[in-house]
């Protein structure tokens, strides 16, 4: 799943983002409008992380969202 899917459907993903980064306020999450760079800057700021660490967390979170979207096709 590319980021544009998350950005387009940000309201669907906000709750999962809040679980991942519970220190972010509802307002901060709303203000991102699904913009990855804005989310990264807020994660860096609130969690005192480097840009690389914040980006890694976001990439890991994004991968988890992809797993949730994929149907459990096991035969």
Can you describe this structure in just a few lines?
The chain is an all-alpha fold. The chain has helices at residues 3-8, 10-20, 26-32, 36-47, 51-69. The longest helix has 19 residues, at 51-69.
CATH topology: Protein Yjbj, Chain: A
Gyration radius over CA: 13 Å
N to C succession of SSEs: HHHHH
Could you tell me how far the N terminus lies from the C terminus, measured between alpha carbons in angstroms? 23 Å
Low-pLDDT segments, ≥5 res = none
Q: Structural class, judged by helices and strands?
A: mainly alpha
Tally of separate domains: 1
Query: Helix segment count?
Result: 5
Query: What is the H level of CATH, i.e. the homologous superfamily?
Result: YjbJ
Name the CATH architecture: Orthogonal Bundle
List the SSEs and their pairings.
Layout: H1 3-8, H2 10-20, H3 26-32, H4 36-47, H5 51-69
Helix pairs in contact: 3-4, 4-5
Would you give an account of this structure?
The protein has helices at residues 3-8, 10-20, 26-32, 36-47, 51-69. It is an all-alpha fold. Helix 3 (26-32) runs antiparallel to helix 4 and helix 4 (36-47) packs across helix 5 (51-69). The longest helix is centred in the C-terminal third of the chain and has 19 residues, at 51-69. It is globular and about 30 Å long. The two termini are 23 Å apart.
